[in-house]
Structure formats: structure tokens, C-alpha cells
Amino acid sequence: MTDAAELRRRTRELLAAQPPAVTDPAGFLRARFDAGLAWVHYPEGLGGLGAPRALQAVVDAELEAAGAPDNDPRRIGIGLGMAAPTILQYGTDEQKQRYLRPLWLGEEVWCQLFSEPGAGSDLAALGTRAVREGDGWVVNGQKVWTSSAHAARWAILIARTDPDVPKHQGITYFICDMTDPGVEVRPLRQITGEAEFNEVFLTDVRIPDTRRLGEIGDGWRVAQTTLMNERVSIGGMRLPREGGMIGPVSRTWRERPELRTHDLHQRLLTLWTEAEVARLTGERLRQQLVAGQPGPEGSGMKLAFARLNQEISGLEVELLGEEGLLYDDWTMRRPELVDFTGRDAGYRYLRSKGNSIEGGTSEVLLNIVAERVLGLPAEPRTDKDVAWKDLAR
User: Cα torsion at 351, 356, 357, 363 (round to 10°)?
Assistant: First the structure.
């Protein structure tokens, strides 16, 4: 069994063979993947060594100390955090070989075609249809709030394949080529002035059955794997102390004593403590992941992430006073990633409003925590056994 010493040895061999200072970054990443040091808990041949997930930190520490390039994980976060674990669990051998390597290398960006105008919080009510035609499927519908769709080559897509059964049972999970005819991406300009989100229209898009993940009609179960990993990737990011949103406001407090008041001091102390508790809880959650798949605990972390971001950014704007009302740039752009700490306080305040919506609304996540973590009685669901086609819309 691969242990920490063996991983250090392999990592140092990689660094000796591909010195980061003189090796093309793309070439280094390819060599790292082929050496099984991309995600060590994945199987051999797929960027891993079948080692315990916790040992990834050993590899990362060695590479960081050597100044090795990374794969720009923020830019390809949907692929890394959502598509990859789903493909690993439900994909065929051919699908794993085809998609995982370019995904991890960042050669192919992924997006997520889940939410719809009429199916956001109630995702299982989605109406995008996939109809079987020969050895493939013809898909028609609309998706919304799709991050990075304008930059993506591939998408994870759920569509309704059987309207005659209850809504959770008639869904199938696909991989959609975003360059195919019939896929139209339109920007959605947000309160920040940017359009990192998109709406996607699917018109007679043909998807071969070889790009189906899981069984026909089993898409909801497959999607749960994606959603649980999504919430962990959003709420359970590894951060140093004072990482994330608490960092900028803490620095402002230390550097601008003239802005301080007693009330703001008390609020900052409270939020600093809560941010540190959330960070340490995230570390514990990642340790739990070593033993198995992510569970509903990720929903609690994502809840804390959204609330803290909104409260911290609000405090920062108040601390800065009139300066907090300034905004650096309203130019309409279509960024490929969200940079919370690289912009000003006004941007952080506005962008954090979306944290309680994206990746599952806070209201839905509260239900998940109540029912699946605390074991409280489930809310009555009158549509549970009603065919999708008979639901009121």
C-alpha cells in the first residue's frame, strides 16, 4: 500500500525528472498526472495510485515547496469538484479514460447544466426533455445560472427522459458537448456588472448514448453525487487562517485604526471566530471524506460559507464608510472565475449575495441538514408519487 514516504519519493522523482524552473507548465502537469500524483486516491492510470485521499496533502506540500505549477483549480473547479467524482463513480472505463485526464490538466473546461427557470430549488421538477432516437438522444430545453458555460467544452446535464413517472424517477444524466449544434449560450449580467453566469438553450441537441452516465431513469441518484461534491467544494475549500473573506477586512482593521469603533470591533471579533470555526470544521470534513463519499454535512458547510461571506462583506463596507460605496469597474465582462479577494469591498459585498443561491439555496440546504443530519421529520411532499406530466406548473 502506498504510504507517505513512498509518495514523497515519487514526487521527488517527478521533480528531478521535470524541474519546474525549466519545464513547460503543461508538460509538468502531464507528467504529474501520468505519475499518479494528480489526485492520489484515484485509480492507477487515471491520475492516481489508489492511495488514501489524505495523502494528497503530502504530494501538494512537496510540489508547493518546489514551486511547481498547479492546474489553476479555480478556473476548472466545476470539472474537478463535480464532474470528475461523478464520472469516476458512474462512468464507463472508456468515459473515464476520455474525460478525466484533459479535465484535470485544464485542457477542457466543464460546466453544469442543472438549474432551469422553473426548476431551481425544486431541481427534480426540471422540464428539459431528452427523447431516445436511434443510438442517441435529442435534447430540448433551457438551463440557467450556468457558470463558465461561455468557456466550457463539456457539460454535465440532467434531462427528463420519462414524463410518465414521478419527477425523481424520470431523469437521466448525460455529458453534453457545448460545441454541438443547437447549444446556445447567452450571458446573464449580474449585480456586479459581470456575466460569469449564463443561460443555455438546447435545441434538438443530439447526444450519443455513449455519453450517458448511469442507467436510464437513474439520473437523480447520479446527480446527488454531483450535488454533494459541489457543496463540499464550495463550502469546504482548504484555507489558511484568515483566508477567504475575513482576510481583507482583518487587514483593513489593522492598517486603518482611524476607522475603528467599539461596535465594529465586537462584530469583527465574532465573525473572525466564526470564520475560524468554519475553517477548522472544513478541515474535519475533509478528513471524514477520506473514509468515504461526501454526505449531507457538506450542506452545513455551504450554509456557513454563504452566511459568513455576506455578513463579513457587509461589515467591511461599513468599516470603510464612504470608501465602501466605491466600485472599481462596472465593465461588462465574462470572467472564467470568481475572485473574491482580488477586487474591492464593493465587489465582495455585491457578489456574496449570490452565495446563498448558487450551489443550492440556503433554504433548501436547511431542509437537508434538518432531515438528513439532525433526523427531523421531513416536510410533507404531496407530489412525491405523482407523475411529472401531471404536476401543476
Answer: -170
Residue 259 CB neighbour total at 10 angstroms: 15
Pairing mode of beta strands 110-113, 154-160: parallel
Compute CA 391 distance to the chain's CA centroid, rounded to the nearest angstrom: 30
CB-based contact 10:35 (threshold 8 Å): yes
Active site residue 230: yes
d(CA 323, CA 345): 9
**8 Å CB contact between 58 and 67:** no
Give the torsion sign (CA, 233, 235, 236, 240). Answer: positive
Instruction: Answer yes or no: are the C-beta atoms of 40 and 19 closer than 8 Å.
Output: no
Q: Is the pLDDT of residue 297 over 80?
A: no
Q: Is 292 a residue whose pLDDT tops 60?
A: no
Contact 321, 261 (CB under 8 A): no
Neighbours of 374 (CB within 10 A): 9
Here the cell at position 113 is 447544466
Q: Which one from 194, 230, 297, 316 is the annotated catalytic residue?
A: 230
pTM, to two decimals: 0.88
pLDDT at 249 over 80: yes
218 - beta bridge partners?
Answer: 171
Q: Which residue from 306, 241, 311, 244 is spatially nearest to 271, judged by alpha carbons?
A: 311
* Alpha carbon separation from 269 to 51, 54, 341, 344, 379 (Å, rounded): 40, 32, 20, 22, 37
In three-state secondary structure terms, 393 is coil
Mean pLDDT computed over every residue of the chain: 91
- Are 141 and 129 in contact by the 8 Å Cβ rule? The answer is yes
Contact between 325 and 350 under an 8 Å Cβ cutoff? The reply is no
